[in-house]
Amino acid sequence: MSSLKEICSGLPLDPLPPNPGRDPGVPHAPIRTPDLTAEDERLALRNALRYFPPSHHATLAPEFAQELRQYGHIYMYRFCPTFRLRAYPIEQYPCRTRQAASIMLMIMNNLDPAVAQFPQELVTYGGNGQVFSNWAQFRLVMRYLSEMTEEQTLVMYSGHPMGLFPSLPSSPRAIITNGMVIPNYSSRDQYERMFALGVTMYGQMTAGSYCYIGPQGIVHGTMLTVLNAGRRYLGTDDLRGRVFVTSGLGGMSGAQAKAAVIAGCVGVIAEVDEAPLRKRHEQGWLMEVTSSLDHCIKRIREAKSSKTPLSLGYHGNVVDLWERLLLEFERTGELLVDLGSDQTSLHNPYNGGYYPAPLSFRQANQLMSTDPGRFRNTVKESLRRHIKAINQLSNAGMFFWDYGNAFLLEAQRAGADVEKVNGGATEFRYPSYVQHIMGDIFSLGFGPFRWVCTSGDPQDLVVTDNIAATVLEEISAGASPRIKQQYNDNIRWIREAGKHKMVVGSQARILYSDQKGRVLIALAINQAIADGRVSGPVVISRDHHDVSGTDSPFRETSNVYDGSAFCADMAVQNFVGDAFRGATWVSLHNGGGVGWGEVMNGGFGLLLDGSEEAAKRASLMLNWDVSNGVARRCWSGNSHAYDTIQRTMEENRQLRVTMPFPVQDEHVLDRALQG
Known about the structure:
alpha/beta, Urocanase_Rossmann-like, urocanate hydratase activity, histidine metabolism
């Protein structure tokens, strides 16, 4: 394809492409406010120009300076490709190795306008989850990948391609780091400055690691969360007529509408930005849309009464929705909501991640850029209102949980009443969904495993769905009662996945599996490629939000109680271990989910091509990728993880893990400390 060859030829310099500026037909990232000094601006401009020969500096410098001052960052819109970026079939990429072509496909999917939140700013999801920092980086990466051999590795520094370096055929084809900032300088304010300078980047989780698969990536986890919340809080997994209220319909939060309907409940999701609301409605993920609170209340009552699954998008502020639900309760005594959560991007509260009441979307964007200090105070006041309404509804019987988006963390920082009496450093009045709803699945080794059919053929996805379901059914038949429920939920999910039409972008699927399931699914898919039942290679991956991939004390490791919740050895070890056990590419990020400076996380991509070598890599790497985290959780004192890693060692005699001896008599400690 000539367009793919063009973007793989590097930076177009002779002549320079025209500069059409920003496309008004697509959503754009909020204006950033890095508060640069005059010297900082000069440095940012100098850093941007180093991608280009001096003969072009006089032309590019004024427009880059304008972008910096107008948008708070130099995106280099002039070099944004004019043709549609999407996951084209792997055979169409002009590459010397399929491994490089698979990385190109995944990058293109992350920047597909049907997938990406702000495609022209290279943001995939979460408001600021960058694939690259600017378009020059994108074009250079595509050229490097097209030229790469199997004895080279692409080294990526926070969006910047440092180059191709000699390596072994067994080495990863790409090593990615994002946001690796010295800890004492890893603050939000420092980040805004460094991102504006073009020297670091916030890759979220799967944005900067090229592994995002659209909102489907979180639909399954959200569905499991809602189902398990019903089991834990309501005593049932029949959620017909039950109401789940939350917020956010963006790249990740957009999954909530589809997940609510699959779980069988009534999902009411508030969203202040009309663009994602309409996008989810047009994609069929959102059944109804309204901007009327009166209509919201009417439809909630109707759906509760008829016990009909519904996803209703409220175009407005979630604070107004919560306060109206509280008003209805105070007026009538009728509690219209059973379950509640929040998925606003509060890892980024002051730059478009949270839109405060009472401002409109447009008013908030304007205040954000013209008076950041006042905007920050407005956000804090809104969070206090937000929590006040939730607290009163919770007191009336509604069950609320934090979805790992830093909602309770930022509410606490804003002075809201979220403190847990006698709680630990990572505990709040309401639980994290990891702590109370999903936490022990990580200790059992279960987490989000995914794959992408690089042929682009929907039939390949059907075949791999059937392979995965068959594998899980075979394992489930001999599973212990503790994990049988996990298998059954995932078998139901994968058997019904096709009819829910969740594919947005690449032909991809996700499910939750443990170590054994992941390995056996990968090997079975690899064999199907070898046999010709699957027509092209398959990339396997996972969300960073997983058993071993993320150290995040307010989410993934919030149920680690030995004092190590704020340590990041697990995520770093996982990144290194995946790299030398066979991953096609690996990544390590600062930030993601809960926010910059709050998390360390990593991920991988591995290409299955039907070869014996691919099978060997998959088996070795996937076993490590799960056992690492289970072993850490075991050492922290988790009994489920202890049992899981003990069983894994019995199945693999080469695995030897240091096992903890728990203190059985607390009086031993008392006597020692009193003496």
